[in-house]
UniProtKB/TrEMBL annotation:
Required for dimerization of active 70S ribosomes into 100S ribosomes in stationary phase; 100S ribosomes are translationally inactive and sometimes present during exponential growth. It is found in: Cytoplasm. GO terms for biological process: negative regulation of translational elongation. This is Ribosome hibernation promoting factor. SUPFAM superfamilies: Ribosome binding protein Y (YfiA homologue). GO terms for cellular component: cytosolic small ribosomal subunit. Signal peptide: none annotated. It holds the Pfam family Ribosomal_S30AE. Its main location: cytoplasm. The lineage of its organism: Bacteria, Pseudomonadati, Pseudomonadota, Alphaproteobacteria, Rhodobacterales. The keyword Lipid biosynthesis does not apply. It comes from Thioclava atlantica.
Length: 191
């Protein structure tokens, strides 16, 4: 597994890098035998250390966790525990579904636009009547089953996930609702 361990405006020493590699590989290999790479980033927020860990699996799924503590090792341990819990749940769901993905998840390129949150006037629009686009990026849309999309959304700690449904090839969305349940939007079912 490839590791990228870095710090934002702080030095990450050899001892911490060795600790991260040992502990993270132990957690990931306990549940997933085919991790490809991991990115761990440390930063400071006032008196706390923050740790953001992301692990990419060969199936195309991505697990991410964040930890926060007053010491840098404790921040990593917090993120590691969250990662452990996510991967354990993911493996349990794979067993429950009795499904083994034989091929990696396919991805398609798609545009991603970030709109400005600030309003220019009372209507909330720019002079030409449209919201201002702050950033244009490219993202990847995976081809997954609905169950795998829900797992990916929970593993990535994101509020929603856009994916291509592997049953019919249409674009679908799963999202975390305000009541804590998961919603699924399938435009094909509205006809």
């Amino acid at each position: 597994m490839r590791y990228q361990i870095s710090g934002k405006q702080l030095d990450v020493g050899e001892a911490l890098q060795s600790h991260v590699k040992t502990e993270l590989s132990e957690v990931v290999e306990k549940y997933m035998q085919r991790p490809t790479d991991a990115t761990v980033t440390f930063s400071r927020d006032a008196h706390n250390f923050l740790c953001e860990a992301t692990v990419h699996l060969s199936t195309g799924l991505t697990a991410s966790a964040k930890g926060q503590a007053t010491e840098i090792y404790a921040a990593f341990d917090s993120a590691r525990e969250k990662m452990d819990k996510q991967l354990r749940r993911h493996k349990r769901r794979l067993k429950d579904h009795h499904r083994d993905r034989s091929e990696p998840v396919e991805f398609e390129a798609a545009g991603l636009y970030v709109l400005a949150a600030e309003e220019d006037d009372e209507t909330g629009e720019t002079a030409n009547g449209a919201p201002m686009i702050v950033a244009e990026m490219e993202t990847k849309v995976p081809t997954l089953s609905v169950g795998e999309a829900v797992m990916q959304m929970e593993l990535s700690n994101v509020p929603l996930l856009v994916f291509r449904n592997e049953k019919h090839g249409g674009v679908n969305v799963v999202h975390r609702r305000d009541d804590g349940h998961v919603g699924w939007i399938d435009p094909r079912n509205s006809k």
